[in-house]
Design goal:
By secondary structure, the protein is α+β, with helices and mostly antiparallel strands. The chain has 4 helices and 12 strands. A hairpin with a 3-residue loop joins strand 11 and strand 12. It starts with a helix and ends in a 9-residue tail after the last strand.
């Protein structure tokens, strides 16, 4: 048994050692419609397993949108190594919205189109500008890439969603605030610097944050929420339909 554990751990370390971000796959996952083929406004939120050994613990999230009649997507997320090198943590650029995150295939967790997307985009831009940590990044417990996207979600009514439980950093509230409405806007949240807290909401169900790790139960769309693993059960969906 001990030999098996040692072998498994050795293989895990070997797989991490051979990961190279410079050669990792950053191609499109072919999820988003081509901007040249659709005129309507689109808003997408994606999550993907993080790079290297971190992928076993957490996901990275980002927001992409295309305005009506425009033939390019704007993609926004927080990139930690940019802040460590003295640059801006928030990266916004014209890009492929559904790029693989250094080999990890993204999951589309919200897809808004048409007039609803048109109404959401100005609010997304305003939320990006109001983010309090444009030049700062802390992997744990935040503020990080998931704290940034959570901030956008909290400030855009059209984004009726919550980040998955393995989005470490999502429970960091704005300026380290103690309480706020939940991400979905359907409940309340209390959080002590993203390390300890509780969330109660129609969309979120019941979530406990213990040392930055989320445990919970979604009652409306039955599922168990676990750190590292994510959501086990029915697929997440907005509480209120248009």
């Amino acid at each position: 048994m001990n030999k098996l554990l040692i072998l498994t751990f050795s293989l895990f370390l070997a797989s991490c050692a051979h990961s190279d971000w410079r050669t990792a796959d950053r191609s499109s996952a072919n999820i988003a419609p081509l901007p040249s083929e659709t005129k309507e406004a689109i808003v997408h939120v994606y999550v993907a397993r993080t790079f290297n050994w971190h992928k076993y613990l957490a996901v990275h999230s980002w927001v992409a949108f295309k305005e009506k009649g425009v033939k390019e997507y704007d993609v926004y997320h927080v990139v930690g190594w940019r802040a460590r090198d003295g640059g801006e943590a928030v990266l916004g650029e014209k890009d492929i919205p559904d790029r693989k995150w250094y080999g990890s295939i993204p999951e589309l967790i919200t897809d808004i189109r048409g007039e609803k997307a048109e109404a959401a985009i100005p609010k997304i831009k305003a939320a990006i500008q109001s983010y309090k940590y444009p030049n700062y990044y802390r992997m744990y417990p935040g503020p990080n890439s998931n704290s940034f996207v959570s901030h956008i979600i909290r400030n855009v009514d059209e984004l009726q969603l919550e980040l998955p439980p393995n989005a470490v950093g999502k429970d960091w509230i704005d300026d380290g605030d103690l309480y706020a409405m939940s991400e979905s806007g359907t409940g309340v949240q209390v959080s002590l610097f993203g390390l300890l807290g509780v969330t109660l909401g129609l969309a979120e169900g019941i979530e406990l944050n213990i040392l930055g790790l989320s445990f919970g139960v979604d009652i409306l769309r039955p599922a168990i929420k676990l750190p590292a693993v994510g959501r086990l059960g029915f697929k997440d969906a907005p509480v209120f339909k248009d």
